[in-house]
Amino acid sequence: MARQFTQEELEPALVPADERLTSRALLSATIGNILEFYDFGTYSFFAIQIGQAFFPARDPFASLMLSLATFGAGFVTRPIGAIVLGSYSDRVGRRPAMTASFAMMSAAILVLAVTPSYETIGIAAPSLAIFARLLQGFALGGEVGPTTAYLMESAPAQARGLAVSFQPASQQIAATAGALVGEILSLTMTSEALNAYGWRIALLLGAGTLPFGLWLRSALPETLHRPEVPPPVVQPVRRSPAARRIMSLGFVILASCTIITYVTGYMTTYALNTLQVSAPLAFATPLVSNTVGIAAALLGGWLADRLGRRHIMIWPQITALLMTYPVFLWIAESRSALALLGGLGALTLIGTIPYSVFYVSMTEGLPKNIRGSAFATIYAFAIAIFGGTAQPVVAWLIHATGNALAPAWYMLAASAAGLCAMLMMPETAPPKLQSVANK
């Protein structure tokens, strides 16, 4: 530890003007994250239309499964991007890693948006689609770790929870933006036009943000060499039992969060295919739930800065676990707008809080010299294994059982696993917050 401390003392610190998280820095990091997750998530909202364009088949279910499998291909390269760009952020800096990931993401979404259909260029169409998803996965794999580390390192100790909560909140904002675009397109275009080119418009909106995003991130102050005053309470040495324990628990919690997030993201397709509701109502479902999720993520960070980390993870998680089955039962039986929008919105409100708090707890618990790469790698493997398979698994469960409650079964198992890991996570809040949390 002494050797590590001496090395950090020799590194240059930021100038005094950069010692606090400025509004511009927070906005730049958050907007870049929003744009990237919009690009990646928009695919899931238009899985049916993209399947028809690139993977035509006589059986609509087969076309959908091929489209979802290509969506899952984007998770295969996430661990590689996490290792490469995460390590780069720990060696060179957070800003260059975030800028590189954003540039690659924008290029990939542009390729996907302009690739002609299978009817026009044959097998080259799905090949280019898969390539674009692989590049997207690599870029996004290296986005989350450096951005989360940057938000935590930039913030004053008493505001780390709120600052880091902008990471999950920005993902919800991106999902909301994608759902809003889908809702507008579904209301203003005919079904034929939406299937033919409407989804391309949604993707091109994301690709058009490249110059703006690069400009924002190029102006970010670097935080890698900034001394943390006061330092995080939990400071395990790299590869120590404490570090391995936090990383193992973090993997389980992130896997739980991933399953719940992507099952919730599947609700548009679920509402259309399984519940057979109207397209405007189907696209409104994630729009409402994700809007609620933005407020819930920020609320979780705000509460964590006042009451500590563990309690704000555990109790909302228990509540969400108890709510899941009744909410899906209500949705499946009534198939009404109130059930879809109100039930899923309430579940998202409670269920987002613990995972938002986890982001800051995990980041505080990792050593600084591996913070970007470790968080990115754990996140990427959890996403690759469980995010890439969540929607195909749910689609298969519904198809095989004919039971509309199949998504609830998967979410219940994920929530229970996440709760067990949260119970074993250490408290990482500053000492003053720990005394409040223990009262």
UniProtKB/TrEMBL annotation:
It comes from the Bacteria. InterPro entries: H+-coupled_symporters (IPR051084), MFS (IPR011701), MFS_dom (IPR020846), MFS_trans_sf (IPR036259), Sugar_transporter_CS (IPR005829). It holds the Pfam family MFS_1. The chain crosses the membrane at residues 64-85, 197-216, 246-267, 279-300, 338-362, 374-398, 404-425. It is a multi-pass membrane protein. It is found in: Cell membrane. Its main location: membrane. Keywords: Cell membrane, Membrane, Symport, Transmembrane, Transmembrane helix, Transport. Residues 25-429 form the Major facilitator superfamily (MFS) profile domain. Belongs to the major facilitator superfamily. Metabolite:H+ Symporter (MHS) family (TC 2.A.1.6) family. PANTHER family: ALPHA-KETOGLUTARATE PERMEASE, CITRATE-PROTON SYMPORTER. This is MFS transporter. It comes from Bradyrhizobium zhanjiangense.
